[in-house]
Amino acid sequence: MGLTDQQKQFVVERRAHPEEPVGWSAARAGASTKRATKTGREWLANPKVREAIANGFERKLEAAKFTKDAILADIASLRDACIQDGGSTALKTRSEADIALAKMGGFFQERVEVGIDIKLLERIDNARRRVGKEPAFNKPELTE
């Protein structure tokens, strides 16, 4: 289980003001002023809070190599897990992260095809004529 919002703010306050009493940091993090010192000490007893203060929430990540096949395999397994689990939010979020990672890696590219639909342009011009306006588009001349 991760840190609460108050504990996260406590970590920020302790890193910003390590010389101040623990109670002050706890109070600024939202703890009751009557028991701020006690709450601060309780939070400091939590190993995750101590680690976050020492490391500043920074995670040491190993250099990971993502391949197209690995990402596609993970997406496929997530699809199956979503079907079995009924589509939990955690699985959807992980799937969205995999897809974003694949896009950032250049494995997938979103494409938007833009084209001119001559029939649509003709319909727009006909509608403009019906209401007494000039056509907006000129039909291109075919050249040989």
CATH topology of the domain at 5-55: Arc Repressor Mutant, subunit A
Q: Give the helix/strand class.
A: mainly alpha
The CATH superfamily of the domain at 5-55 bears the name Terminase, small subunit, N-terminal DNA-binding domain, HTH motif
Principal-axis shape: elongated
- Helical stretch count? 7
CATH architecture of the domain at 5-55, by name, is Orthogonal Bundle
Walkthrough of the structure:
The protein has 144 residues and is mainly alpha-helical. Among the domains are: 5-55, Terminase, small subunit, N-terminal DNA-binding domain, HTH motif (Arc Repressor Mutant, subunit A, Orthogonal Bundle), CATH 1.10.10.1400; 68-104, no CATH class. Helices cover 59% and strands 0% of the residues. The chain contains seven helices and no strands. Helix 1 (5-16) packs across helix 4 (47-55), helix 2 packs across helix 3 (36-45) and helix 5 (68-85) packs antiparallel against helix 6 (89-104). The radius of gyration is 29 Å and the shape is elongated.
